[in-house]
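hey can u check if this looks right to u? its 154 residues, i copy pasted from the old doc so theres a chance i mangled smth
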Amino acid sequence: SPQLQRKRHIGNDIVAIVFQDENTPFVPDMIASNFLHAFVVVQLEQGGTQGTLYKVSVTARDDVPFFGPPLPDPAIFRKGPEFQEFLLTKLINAEYACYRAEKFAKLEERTRAALLETLHEELQARSQAMLGLGPDDERADNGGAAPGFFESFK
C-alpha cells in the first residue's frame, strides 16, 4: 500500500520533520524505526494580522545530546527567511547530534574499524609486492624470481 511505502522511507531517516495539523497529538512511538532518533514538529498557528505563524517543538531519544539553536519561549515563528534558517539549522544540528547517540556511535566505530582493517591489509599486500616478498606461489609463477624493489638494484 502507498502508506506502507511512505512509512518504509520515513523509517530509514535519522531526523524527521512533522507538519502537524491543528491540535492532533503527535506520538513519536507511532513510527516504528530503529533509525529515527529526532523529530522537529511544526504546527500552523493562527496569526491573524501578523501573517502566517508556526509553532515548533522538538523531541529526541534519550541518548541524543542537546542540539541548538535553542527554541525561543514561546517557540512561535513568523513565516520568512529567518524561520527557514532556524529550521534548517535545527534539522542539520539534530542529525549531527543523533550521530553521537549510542546506536550510531557503535555503527560508526564498527565501520571505521572495518575500513582501517581493509586499508591495513591492502597496504601490507602492496608493500610485500613492492619489496618482492609476496607469497611463495606468486614466486613460483614468475620462475622463482620476485621482481620487487630490491631486485631492480642488482
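The mean pLDDT is 79.
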